[in-house]
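Hi R.,

As promised on Friday, here is the backbone we talked about, encoded as structure tokens. Could you run it through your design pipeline when you get a chance and send me back a sequence?
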């Protein structure tokens, strides 16, 4: 598999989804939207369009620009409506059969579907469906939804989708395309993001982030609400709320790292939130130093906020090479070590003889942080203090973010002082969970019902982990399996 061996010490972005209805160049606009969402998934990309008579599809491994950057591909995707997907695999191998959108022909016609998130009972349901006789073409959990739609006894496609989603557990945002409809859905807790936009009077868009609207000149209308199904068709935009209302638990890591800094989330701009996180860090754990430097690029806004609050200079002591991407080089341990230098390089003229505060968004395995600290010291820094704009990552995510198993997470096995020694810094501090909540606009974190999904820091999983726990098969699926 072609891969990038230089990013194994980050939490990887889940996926990005995009859909548009009513534009003569729907596929081209979808490709632009996927460009804007490329940071959310860099392993594969796909687009399905509909021209009023036929569905057209192009899916491929690699970046959006590599696969949709030429005119012939877009010309082969005609139609006034389309959906697209960029993928980082959280379930299923990185092979073409798992690249989305997935497409299937049903008795009511074709259906294409793209999914951001993870189903936590996918394995349990899959076993029951296989026993019933369902044939799977992929190893992606998204196909669970497709299969459940296929066997539903409901009459309309929307009713079938409601029936299918009522049987799954987990975090999901979906866009789906039928012969007459574009559909957007968020899970009842609203863990994963999805926004609704408009271009002109009759063109409607779904996207994982608001920047995907900006890039095509569309207007942000609102967020799709948790548990809401929004249907766009020839009669306009329709909202359905078929699921039991539960307290929201939006993924707080979207604010820390995943979303672009120019995104708008819950009427808050991510850039300002990240600066406030840095300011909270400075108030909680400032140490005397000559400068604040970010680990680019994700640490930049937090470092700026830290420097402003601490009233010490912000400097670019580490320069990032933006042209290190996917590589054919085998990710041996030696290449991984060199990879840090390929992606980041210290600036000796800035660092020599200085006491520096190094700001990053997270420490996952600790391997990259250790090498960056070594690099900064070799450049002449006399002291290196590290500040992290998230609490310690102590638990794995099962809701659509690719994280190592818990035993691979440094903070799951070591306390802060032990991590400080491993990473090799003079001092280390993370933002507190209370400080993080203050930065995103909450006065306190309600321990009885947290306002966000923060399970990677607290272990408080808001959605049952059925596959991990070996939970029961849903009753309706058990009956289907028995009859099958």
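Update: got your reply. Pasting your designed sequence below so it's all in one thread:
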């Amino acid at each position: 598999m072609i891969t990038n061996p230089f990013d194994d010490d980050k939490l990887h972005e889940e996926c990005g989804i995009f859909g548009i209805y009513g534009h003569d160049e729907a596929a081209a606009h979808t490709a632009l939207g996927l460009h804007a969402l490329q940071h959310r998934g860099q392993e594969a990309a796909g687009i399905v369009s509909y021209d009023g008579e036929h569905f057209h599809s192009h899916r491929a491994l690699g970046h959006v620009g590599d696969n949709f950057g030429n005119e012939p591909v877009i010309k082969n995707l005609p139609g006034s409506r389309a959906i697209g997907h960029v993928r980082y695999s959280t379930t299923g191998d990185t092979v073409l059969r798992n690249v989305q959108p997935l497409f299937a022909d049903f008795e009511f016609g074709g259906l294409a579907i793209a999914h951001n998130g993870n189903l936590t009972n996918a394995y349990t349901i899959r076993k029951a469906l296989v026993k019933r006789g369902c044939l799977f073409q992929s190893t992606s959990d998204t196909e669970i939804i497709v299969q459940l739609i296929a066997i539903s006894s409901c009459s309309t496609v929307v009713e079938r989708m409601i029936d299918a989603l009522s049987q799954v557990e987990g975090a999901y945002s979906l866009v789906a395309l039928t012969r007459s409809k574009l559909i957007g859905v968020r899970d009842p807790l609203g863990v994963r993001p999805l926004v609704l936009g408009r271009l002109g009077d009759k063109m409607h868009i779904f996207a994982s982030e608001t920047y995907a609207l900006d890039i095509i000149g569309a207007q942000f209308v609102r967020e799709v609400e948790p548990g809401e199904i929004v249907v766009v068709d020839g009669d306009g935009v329709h909202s359905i709320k078929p699921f039991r209302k539960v307290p929201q638990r939006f993924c707080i890591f979207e604010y820390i790292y995943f979303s672009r800094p120019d995104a708008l989330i819950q009427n808050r701009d991510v850039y300002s939130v990240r600066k406030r996180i840095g300011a909270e860090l400075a108030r909680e754990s400032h140490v005397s130093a000559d400068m604040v430097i970010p680990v680019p690029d994700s640490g930049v806004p937090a470092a700026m906020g830290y420097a402003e609050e601490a009233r010490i200079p912000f400097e670019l002591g580490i320069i990032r090479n933006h042209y290190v991407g996917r590589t054919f080089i085998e990710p041996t341990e030696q290449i991984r070590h060199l990879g840090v230098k390929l992606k980041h390089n210290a600036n000796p003229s800035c660092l020599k003889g200085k006491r520096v505060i190094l700001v990053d968004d997270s420490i996952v395995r600790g391997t990259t942080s250790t090498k960056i600290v070594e690099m900064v010291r070799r450049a002449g820094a006399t002291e290196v203090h590290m500040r992290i704009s998230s609490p310690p990552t102590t638990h794995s995510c099962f809701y659509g973010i690719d994280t190592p198993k818990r035993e691979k997470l440094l903070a799951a096995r070591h306390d802060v002082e032990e991590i400080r020694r491993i990473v090799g810094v003079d001092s280390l501090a993370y933002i507190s969970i209370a400080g993080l909540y203050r930065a995103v606009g909450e006065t306190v974190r309600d321990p009885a019902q947290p306002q966000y999904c923060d399970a990677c820091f607290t272990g408080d999983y808001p959605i049952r982990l059925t596959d991990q726990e070996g939970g029961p098969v849903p009753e309706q699926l058990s009956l289907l399996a028995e009859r099958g």
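One thing I noticed while checking it: The first helix runs from residue 26 to 36.

Thanks again,
M.
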